[in-house]
Amino acid sequence: MSRRESLIRYRLIISFLKRKPSSFEEILNHLEDKSTFYDYKLIISKRTFKRDLLEIASLFDIEIEYDFRRKVYCLTEGTILNKSQSFLLDELLLLNLNPSIKSKICFDERFSHTDDLEKYLPIINSKKQIKLTYKAFNSKKAKIYFVNVYGLKQACGFWYLIASDANDELIVKSFGIDRIVEFEVTKFKAKRSSNFSISEYYKHCFGVINFADQLPERLKIKFCGYHVNYIKAHPFHNSQKIISEKKDEIVIELFIKKTIDLEMELKKYAGYYEIY
Question: What is the pLDDT of residue 1?
Answer without folding.
Answer: 52
